[in-house]
Amino acid sequence: MPFALLHWLLTWVMLLHVAGPLPQDLGLQGQHLRRCSGAQHCAQLQLSTDQPLELFSALNQAIDAMPRMQRVVTTESYVHVVATSFFFGFADDLELALDQTSGWVELRSESRLGESDFGVNRRRLAQLQLVADRSLDPVS
Fold first, then answer.
1. Neighbouring residues of 133: CB distance < 8 A, sequence distance ≥ 6
2. Which pLDDT tens digit goes with each residue over 48-89?
3. Which of 11, 82, 84, 132 is most exposed by smallest CB count within 10 Å?
4. Among candidate residues 75, 106, 81, 105, the one with its CA nearest the CA of residue 93
5. What percent of the chain has pLDDT over 90?
């Protein structure tokens, strides 16, 4: 009986795609993205460079090449993308912010639902960190 219930539940979750509500506090909070609250379903990264515009552009191109990414907001200095998981349709909010004056690009990725994302957001930012490293040091 428990297997049948689990099967039924998983079927409905797959059909409904559990995205969760859009957070109302996305975007810049002052000059920075909102800090992760310490929850295991959030990851954040700040990159400093003397070529922030080029880095921001390279990260945008990398995001465009990733599967299941949907742009919500794109400006000269801010990007909000919704990443959707393949199987259940869980939504993660990925944000990029550019500060050309200070020379930094900030990234933040957070799951909308749950307490843990099994490291998905951390791995996503690690993948973008590799893009940043190649962009900042094209010789290697």
1. 140
2. 999 999 999 999 999 999 999 999 999 999 999 999 987 777
3. 11
4. 81
5. 56
| DSSP structural state of residue 123 | H
Please give the residue range of the domain that contains residue 126: 18-136
For residue 53, the domain's CATH number is 3.30.310.80
Asked whether residue 38 is assigned to any structural domain, the reply reads yes
Checking if the pLDDT of 32 tops 60, the result is yes
Question: Is residue 11 in a domain?
Answer: no
Task: Say which residue the tokens 């909000």 belong to.
Answer: 80
Looking at the 3D structure of the chain, how many domains does it have? 1
Three-class DSSP category at 97: strand
- Evaluate whether residue 28 is within a structural domain: yes
Q: Is 136 left (phi over 0), alpha (psi -120 to 50) or beta?
A: alpha
Predicted local confidence at residue 140, as pLDDT: 46
Is residue 110 in a domain?
Answer: yes
The proportion of the chain whose per-residue pLDDT surpasses 70, expressed as a percent, equals 84
Joined tokens for residue 122 = 């951390």
